[in-house]
Amino acid sequence: MPRLIRYFSEKNARAFVEKGEVLFRSLSYFRDYEDNEVRSDEHEGTLVHLPSNGLKVTLVDSGESISLPHRFESTAKEDEIFVYCMSTELSKDIGQRFKADVAIEIVDPVRFLSRIRSSLSLRRRLRAEQLTHQPVRYYEWHEPPIVDWALPEKIAMCKPKSFKWQHEYRFAVPAGDALHVENVSVKLAPLDSKRSSRADSHPQLLLKLGNISKLCRVHNLEKISTSLERRRAARAYQNTNLIPRVAKPVRFATVEIISITSA
């Protein structure tokens, strides 16, 4: 497993380290969240397909091919799939976008995963044996969905490429049969349509893993350089190396050689 990073406010970081509080939220929570596409994703839990040259269909009667002003959407059971989101990158830039105070690095991700599995196994309504975890796949809408449209597990683990800056690593666990093949809703949505929020509250799942301080390393984001600061430092270093240097005169020690002959 890669190293895992979670960005926190100071208060939530303490609860994470000292109590092992891990809050899984439903996919629908992130769909309805409003923060200008930092955590929010209007199409969370939905795989979208829109070819570059438009969505084409063939009329059965005439065989004519026409373009529709629609996109194809396949949506998983958003209220029944719970996810916990982390990152594989330690970055001040990411922390600033999440408005975080600290970053917690999981130095032993295998033991962390074991703790999560053990805690999930105590929840009867969840299918703990179906827990899946992997880096999120970032995609463009024009990419063919192939078979992914029918696989809720794949849908839960993909996001539009505009979110690639997050370098997200995601844990997902279903309730009931939410990850069964073809347990999705498909439709053709008009291009100008927006998905409206469906609820004010969303299902969530709070795990308490116990103290995990031995599995963690705390990073103060103020002490980490941003990518802009690193680029400026690199340019300054390059400019310094371009300045001609005057060679210093080399002085050689004078050695007096004395010839010694035997008497």
Molecular structure report:
By secondary structure, this protein is α+β, with helices and mostly antiparallel strands. The chain has one domain (4-223). It has 6 helices and 15 strands. A 5-stranded antiparallel beta sheet has the order 9-12-7-2-14. It is globular, with a radius of gyration of 28 Å. The model is unreliable at 252-263 (pLDDT under 50).
Task: Jot down its keywords.
263 residues, alpha+beta, five-stranded antiparallel sheet, 15 strands, 21% helix, 28% strand
Binned, the helix content reads 10-25%
Order of secondary-structure elements? EHEHEEEEEHEHEEHEEEEEH
Assign an overall shape.
Answer: globular
Q: What's the end-to-end separation, in Å?
A: 81 Å
> What fraction of residues sit in β-strands?
25-35%
Class by SSE composition: alpha+beta
- Count of DSSP strands: 15
What would the average pLDDT be, to the nearest integer?
85
Please provide a brief summary of the model:
The protein is an alpha+beta fold. The chain is 21% helix and 28% strand.
Question: In terms of topology, how is this protein built?
Answer:
Elements: E1 4-8, H1 10-19, E2 21-26, H2 27-32, E3 46-49, E4 55-58, E5 65-68, E6 70-75, E7 81-87, H3 92-97, E8 102-106, H4 109-120, E9 132-135, E10 137-139, H5 152-156, E11 158-160, E12 168-174, E13 185-190, E14 204-208, E15 216-220, H6 227-242
Parallel strand pairs: 10-11
Antiparallel strand pairs: 1-8, 2-7, 2-14, 3-6, 4-5, 6-13, 7-12, 8-15, 9-12
